Amino acid sequence: MAQDTVETLDVRQLPPRERHPLIFSKLDALPKGGALVLVNDHDPKPLRYQLMAERPEQFEWVPEQEGPEEWRIRITRR
User: Fold this and answer.
1) What one-character-per-residue DSSP string does 16-77 give?
2) What residues are paired with 30 via a beta bridge?
3) Rounded distance, CA 39 to CA 19, Å?
4) CATH class of the structural domain 6-77
5) Confidence bin at 4 (pLDDT 50/70/90)
6) What does the alpha-carbon distance between residue 60 and residue 37 come to, in Å, rounded to a whole number?
7) Is 40:12 a contact under the CB 8 Å cutoff?
């Protein structure tokens, strides 16, 4: 994935138990400067806390849309 390429990952149709493992696998595969836009049906605060705890200082978290029915978060590897 080129640094200027942004992948969109829509997890709204996935069972909740499958979401975090998939998101983390996608984030771990990002090159430095690569970004992923996460699309979710609820505020992904628990994911953010998990990311900060397990991958401190590795990603930038920028909300692009915050509800009420769709959340879009741009997560960029530092």
Assistant:
1) HHHHHHHHHHHHHTPPTT-EEEEEESS--HHHHHHHHHHSTTSEEEEEEEE-SS-EEEEEEE
2) none
3) 11
4) alpha beta
5) low
6) 12
7) yes
Residue 20 burial (C-beta neighbours within 10 Å; 0-12, 13-18, 19+): middle
CA 19 to chain CA centroid, nearest Å = 10
> Residue 66: which residues within 8 A CB-CB, separation 6 or more?
43
pLDDT tens digits along 32-66: 999 999 999 999 999 999 999 999 999 999 999 99
Alpha-carbon distance of 31 to 20, in angstroms, equals 19
